[in-house]
Amino acid sequence: xxxxxxxxxxxxxxxxxxxxxxxxxxxxxxxxxxxxxxxxxxxxxxxxxxxxxxxxxxxxxxxxxxxxxxxxxxxxxxxxxxxxxxxxxxxxxxxxxxxxxxxxxxxxxxxxxxxxxxxxxxxxxxxxxxxxxxxxxxxxxxxxxxxxxxxxxxxxxxxxxxxxxxxxxxxxxxxxxxxxxxxxxxxxxxxxxxxxxxxxxxxxxxxxxxxxxxxxxxxxxxxxxxxxxxxxxxxxxxxxxxxxxxxxxxxxxxxxxxxxxxxxxxxxxxxxxxxxxxxxxxxxxxxxxxxxxxxxxxxxxxxxxxxxxxxxxxxxxxxxxxxxxxxxxxxxxxxxxxxxxxxxxxxxxxxxxxxxxxxxxxxxxxxxxxxxxxxxxxxxxxxxxxxxxxxx
Length: 392
Ligand SMILES: *Cc1c(COP(=O)(O)O)cnc(C)c1O
Known about the structure:
single chain; 4-stranded mixed sheet; 17 strands; 37% helix; globular
């Protein structure tokens, strides 16, 4: 008989009843070190007092009105995002893949309004992940995601990751509306796009007018040690998808764009019942107030250096288990030589949560405010997990 919950996840036999900082607690009191952060969501760990206070204060006042009315919490959060980024305007959604939907619609509408509706193709890259909606899976384009769900949303063209010549060629096509990519591929195995490539892509977009859509759902919100990952390359996108970390665990997504890219969108063209509701935006404001400060981000960079150095040592100590470390900031991947799933299981054996990804990689996406002690404890536990995998 089918379980009451649709069985589409391969769940670990764990469940947690509470959390504090970088720790998760099971009903029997067993404590796990959380290095997955709910897949890059819990940027301030569990039960952060400022987020709990923001949520409970709002909960006692007003949960939901509607986008029929002004939502002051939404306006405040949008202003913060506009002030801190390239963006001129923000749309709020509830998840990452919803921001992909609007990114695609906005790019197509832009060209439509410019009288060039034939410019509707979105270029995307192999190994990418943009969520599970119809536009998200069409953008990623992998057989694993689209298989059986056809007909796939048309108008996407896929390019091999890291092939600048193929990209330059593809950009010349007269039907290209936009390019979508993650500055650091997350699900794909923590694969950063080199700064040079992002710069080159920006130049190509400037030459052709195509819109540059960055998916910072996983790598944004301080994860790499800058508020957004593209800042490392010194370029700005036209449209950017944000979710995961921005709500710190409360469902929230945001689509940021320039005035130019948003120019086709008119009242009635898009919407969301819950998007940017008072509860979500109360938490989003509290997250931004902490994360979007230079003191916080420089601490992320320092902690990332500590963690990464330790992981390099771990790889050196276990050359049969690990191949290499890659990533940016506290978005770290360990490419494995043994099956990555075995490493995840071995970490569970050490009461530690890590996250599998493609390319036989495991991901470390800890809370951005993880303590130095917890980083050192993580390294000890990963060391024991790796040791438990080496055949005697
Ligand atoms: C998680 C993720 C998404 C999808 O976000 P959901 O909130 O699960 O819809 C999209 N893009 C990237 C890069 C992601 O990591």
